Amino acid sequence: QVQVVESGGGLVQAGGSLRLSCAASGRIFKINSMGWYRQAPGKQRELVAGVTRDSITNYADSVKGRFTISRDNAKNTVYLQMNSLNPEDTAVYYCNVRVVAGVGYLDVWGQGTLVTVSS
Fold first, then answer.
1. If pLDDT is split at 50, 70 and 90, which confidence band does 102 have?
2. How far is the C-alpha of 47 from the C-alpha of 93, rounded, in Å?
3. Cα–Cα distances in Å, from 73 out to 29, 43, 96?
4. What are the beta bridge partners of residue 107?
5. Could you tell me the CA-to-CA distances from 46 to 30, 53, 94, 111 in Å, in that order?
6. Phi and psi torsions of 68, nearest 5°
7. DSSP run (H or E) holding 35
8. What tens digit of pLDDT does each residue of 46-65 get?
9. Residue 57 burial (CB < 10 Å; 0-12/13-18/19+)?
């Protein structure tokens, strides 16, 4: 059993910053990729940023230059530093952890943390 818990969401004014954290725990042999997704009201869930075990990162075009994803493999934790936030960033942010399981992978999701950016 693997659990993923996010923290760090909240209310911030436009132009402000927030840092999200996500920690995975439980029976973990090895974590492959980790990432952050978000879902705004009435919209589909979308990838915000991802990072491989070797710290190769990728970002949605809408957040490039403003958000930074990083991970601490020793702590099974991934972070998302969000700067220059704007109201369009308002969404529930979900952490995704891809865990090595047998000959394949298991995707584990957190419960989500709400980020609200006021104008």
1. confident
2. 10
3. 12, 32, 15
4. 98
5. 25, 21, 10, 15
6. -135, 125
7. strand 31-39
8. 999 999 999 999 999 999 99
9. middle
